[in-house]
Amino acid sequence: MPLPLFPATWMTDEHRLLQHSAARFFAERWVPRATGWRAAGLMERDTWRETGTQGLLCAAMPEHLGGSGGDFGHEAVIVMEAARANLGGFGGSVHSAIVAPYLLRHGSDAQKARWLPAMATGERVGAIAMTEPGTGSDLQAIRTRARLDGDHYVISGQKTFITNGQNADLIVVVCRTGEAPGESPAKGLSLIAAEIDADTTGLTRRRLDKIGLHAQDTSELFFDELRVPAAHLLGASEGLAFGQLMGELPQERLVIACQAVAMMERALDDTVAYAKQREAFGQPIWNFQNTRFVLAQAQSDVLAARALVDAAITAHLKGELDAARAALVKAWCSDLASRLTDACLQLFGGYGYMLETPIAELWADARVTRIYGGTNEIMKELASRSM
């Protein structure tokens, strides 16, 4: 087996207990069902309530709002254990570590009390609708519009690549509510939380077919005069979304780095075990120097990536992780995850190309970490501005 990782200084006994509990739950309850979810293209809605019962949703939300009262370290543990279990279809990281913080930090007391407890139990599934077909990482080019009509906003537009898109019934929509002549386009953006129920009209969803993340219900959303109460605006006034988004994106990018590191750890574990039992030319392929050299390099890469992510988590827990460093951590770890899983897949030979082999799923899933949360090219551009 690979060498043990250096101890993570941010982890407490409570984090370790959660780590063991999450790992056991995923291994015993979800991994046996994962093949069916991949075939179906989504996880059943009931899996969210099951996760909530286990305390694996909204771990960093305050207890009085239904959460576990933890910190980002608790979310990181859950994210990494899900990735290590090869459960790329679980959108809990978006629900708990991205959507819930927007509500906690920018919602009113009434909004928080209405939505966060339901998210913690899995009764409500959260998504954020940011990306549009023509915008990608350019938030200022967002065209989805919300016009005020009495005591409701009426939302029209299109969003794409939305994690939890089929299951979500609480969608934070980034939309354009106004823009004065001569003002920056960023000043016209607002966040509006849309509750989606059985009788909701004005929303159509299309599940997307992807290279990886086969069990994730990533979707395209079409808003056609969707009416949302004006009271669901997040923030004291319209036009605050750009600042709200910039404040939360460092955590989103750190979450992606956590996923990438856990994928690498799982890929390395699986490949070392395979190399020691798979025979070629009358001996285990581990006996070939090239195999050992490839895996020794992978081990050093994993150690370096985990040390970088642990340092970033420590900084974030202290409130010291800035946008530039978060961008670089995300870019470096996700680039490395693609290279490392590719090298590991190669050692599996033809079996590595079969989806029944976990390394194939890890390889395909790792690829998107270089794209979502902002492409790595954008990450490097953002980081360069602070140099």
Features:
Butyryl-CoA Dehydrogenase, subunit A, domain 2; alpha+beta; Butyryl-Coa Dehydrogenase, subunit A, domain 1; 3 domains; four-stranded antiparallel beta sheet; 14% strand; Butyryl-CoA Dehydrogenase, subunit A, domain 3; 387 residues; four-stranded mixed beta sheet
Q: Would you write up a description of this structure?
A:
With 387 residues, this protein is α+β, with helices and mostly antiparallel strands. It has three domains: 13-124, Acyl-CoA dehydrogenase/oxidase, N-terminal domain (Butyryl-Coa Dehydrogenase, subunit A, domain 1, Orthogonal Bundle), CATH 1.10.540; 128-239, Butyryl-CoA Dehydrogenase, subunit A, domain 2, CATH 2.40.110; 243-384, Butyryl-CoA Dehydrogenase, subunit A, domain 3. The protein has eleven helices and ten strands. A four-stranded mixed beta sheet has the order 1-4-5-8, with helices on one face. Strand 9 (279-280) and strand 10 (283-284) form a beta hairpin. Helix 4 runs antiparallel to helix 5 and helix 7 (241-277) packs antiparallel against helix 10 (358-367). The longest helix is centred in the last third of the chain and has 37 residues, at 241-277. It is globular.
